[in-house]
Amino acid sequence: MNGQNSTTNQKQNPVQAAPAPNIGSENISLPVILLVEDDPVLSKMYTEKFKFEGFSVLTAANGEDGLHVALTQKVDLILLDLMLPRLSGTELLARLREDPKGKGVVVVALTNLAEEEEKQKAIQLGVKEYLIKAMQTPEEVVKKVKGYIGKS
Fold first, then answer.
1. What is the total count of domains within the chain?
2. Strand spans (E) along 19-88
């Protein structure tokens, strides 16, 4: 072993980086989105959509992995489901904000939780926007994300 992955023998990390589109230059730094979503169909759809729109996408299928990626990788924005296994999106957000590396990260909630109490809790923890999945098209989500990271 070359030492890079020697600490993760007991379990494979389900976090995956989607490859960036080949746009002809190795020097271009694409904006990085962390998509924390446990629904594999939605995760794949949003990953493909954001890649097509010129983003690099990291994915996590549960809150624990999402928090780990958020604190160890450079991400420009986190698109966060709130109903997640192993660690809820709200708890992920609270822990993210406790860490100096996570205090300033832009987070947009993308969830099916429409309860006002959950929305207020997420807003208090610093989400920039609270989007209900059923009320947003992927194009609308991409447009909002672009607005938060200054990509037009």
1. 1
2. 32-36, 56-60, 77-80
CATH number at 70 reads 3.40.50.2300
**Sequence-ordered alpha helix ranges (H) in the chain:** 40-52, 63-72, 89-98, 116-124, 138-149
CA 50 to chain centre: 11
**112 is a domain residue:** yes
Check: CB of residue 91 under 8 Å from CB of residue 134.
Answer: no
In this structure, is residue 54 part of a structural domain?
A: yes
CA gap 109, 90 in Å, rounded: 9
Residue 105 domain flag: yes
Q: Which domain holds residue 97?
A: 30-143
Q: In this predicted model, what pLDDT tens digit does every residue of 77-92 receive, in sequence order?
A: 999 999 999 999 999 9
> What CA–CA distance (Å, rounded) separates 119 from 132?
10
Q: Considering the domain boundaries, does residue 41 fall inside one?
A: yes
Q: What is the mean pLDDT of residues 118-122?
A: 92
